[in-house]
Specification:
It is built from 6 helices and 4 strands. With 168 residues, the protein is an alpha+beta fold.
Length: 168
């Protein structure tokens, strides 16, 4: 850990430094002074808890605590590979989500799922998470187009398919 000595210079006519004066001198220090971090503190620790094997959904699920002092955060891609290595699984079958960084930084908590195979991942994982990890395509077209299509289809509710407008 880096330790620094702070020397505050006061004018000679000051008899005793007041707390306000000390605070002013302290705040006038350059910002980079506080941003210096020892590289030993930058190590990332991953701990898992509440581990559960869910046979019905063909996966292992757990809460993940990431301790990252000195780092803003750890990427989900990096977490997927490290968790996969911890549990002897491929990175492709690991899904991580719901990460919240604790106040003050240094610790993040989230959720991880490790599926038995890629087919189970594609079957049970929500589409938006499949898109994030690159196993599915995001729907094309805009929000307005989807809404217009939905409203056009509402007119034909209960009507045989032959009278519906053709698929776009």
């Amino acid at each position: 850990m880096c330790l620094y000595e702070i020397e505050i210079s006061l004018p000679l006519n000051t008899i005793q430094p007041t707390p306000a004066r000390l605070a002013t001198e302290f705040l006038s220090l350059p910002l980079f002074f506080f941003a210096l971090v020892d590289q030993a503190d930058a190590a990332v620790t991953i701990r898992t808890r509440k581990f559960l094997t869910n046979r019905l959904l063909q996966r292992k699920q757990m809460v993940v605590d990431v301790i990252h002092p000195g780092l803003a955060n750890v990427s989900k891609d990096e977490l997927r590979s490290k968790i996969g290595k911890m549990y002897k699984a491929e990175k492709e079958v690991v899904s991580v989500f719901g990460f919240k960084t604790h106040f003050g930084g240094g610790k993040t908590t989230g959720f991880a799922l490790i599926y038995d195979n890629v087919e189970a991942l594609k079957k049970f994982e929500p589409k938006h998470r499949l898109v994030r990890i690159g196993l599915a395509e995001a729907p094309k077209g805009g929000r307005k187009q989807r809404k217009e299509k939905k409203n056009r289809e509402k007119k034909f509710r209960g009507v045989r398919k032959s009278k519906k407008p053709r698929k776009e």
